[in-house]
TrEMBL record:
Keywords: Transferase. Residues 86-207 form the GST C-terminal domain. Residues 1-81 form the GST N-terminal domain. It comes from Herbaspirillum frisingense. This is Glutathione S-transferase GstB.
C-alpha cells in the first residue's frame, strides 16, 4: 500500500502524483500542508522533521524529498525506462532533476511569489526584475537543450526529469510578464500535453 501525504495543489506533491500515473501505481493520498492538516503535527514531524510535503509511506518505507521519491518509486516499481540504470543515462536524468530543484527553483521563487501568489512579503520590484531575469536565463538554457535533445529534456525518451521540468513550465506560462518566445520549450509543452499524468497534475490550471 502506497500512501502520499500532501495536498495536490503543491507542485512537489504533483511530481509524485504524475510519477505514479506514469508507473500505473495505485495510492491513497491525504491532504496535508497549508490550508489542510498542519505538517507541524507530531505524527507528521515523526515522518518528516522538515515539516514539508510530500512524504510517502510505501509498505512501511517512509521517504521525503520529492525528487528522491520519484527516483525511489521508479527504481522500486518497474520504472527502468523512466530512470535508466546505465550510469551516464542516469546521470543525465539526475542532472536535469537537480537543476530544476536548485537553480531553476531558486530563480523563479521571488517573481512567482510576487506575481502569481501575490505574497505581501515579495513586493520589491527590483527583486522581482532580478528574479525574472535569472529565470529567463535558465529557460534559455532549457530552450537550447530542447533544440538538440531529441524531444525530452534528457534525450529522445520521456524520463523522470521531464516531470519536475514539465511542472516548472506551468509556472513559467502562468506568470504574467513578457516572456521571450522559446519555440522548443513550447513544442515540448505540447508534447507533454499528450501524457495523461501531465494533463491531470500539470496542465490542470494549478500553478
Ligand atoms: N525540497 C522539498 C520541498 C518541499 C516543499 O517546499 N513543500 C512545500 C509545498 S510545495 C511545503 O511543504 N510547504 C509547507 C506546507 O504546505 O505546510 C521537496 O522537493 O520535497
Amino acid at each position: 500500500m502506497l500512501t502520499i501525504y500532501g495536498k495536490d495543489s503543491s507542485i512537489n506533491v504533483r511530481k509524485v502524483l504524475w510519477a505514479c500515473a506514469e508507473l500505473g501505481l495505485d495510492y491513497v493520498r491525504e491532504d496535508w500542508g497549508v490550508g489542510f492538516r498542519s505538517t507541524r503535527e507530531p505524527s507528521f514531524l515523526a515522518m518528516n522533521p522538515n515539516a514539508m510535503i510530500p512524504v510517502i509511506d510505501d509498505d512501511g518505507f517512509v521517504l521525503w524529498e520529492s525528487n528522491s521519491i520519484l527516483r525511489y518509486l521508479a527504481a522500486q516499481h518497474g520504472g527502468a525506462s523512466l530512470y535508466p540504470s546505465a550510469p551516464r543515462e542516469r546521470a543525465r536524468v539526475d542532472q536535469w532533476m537537480d537543476w530544476q530543484a536548485s537553480d531553476l527553483n531558486r530563480a523563479w521563487s521571488y517573481a512567482f511569489m510576487s506575481l502569481v501568489r501575490k505574497s505581501p512579503l515579495h513586493g520589491d520590484a527590483r527583486q522581482v526584475a532580478t528574479s525574472l531575469e535569472s529565470w529567463t536565463g535558465f529557460m534559455r538554457v532549457l530552450e537550447q537543450q530542447l533544440q538538440g535533445s531529441g524531444g525530452y529534456v534528457a534525450g529522445s525518451a520521456f524520463t523522470l526529469a521531464d516531470i519536475p521540468v514539465g511542472l516548472s513550465l506551468v509556472r513559467w506560462f502562468a506568470t504574467p510578464f513578457e516572456r521571450p518566445a522559446l519555440p522548443a520549450v513550447q513544442a515540448y509543452c505540447d508534447r507533454l500535453e499528450q501524457r495523461e499524468g501531465f494533463r491531470k497534475f500539470g496542465s490542470n490550471g494549478m500553478a
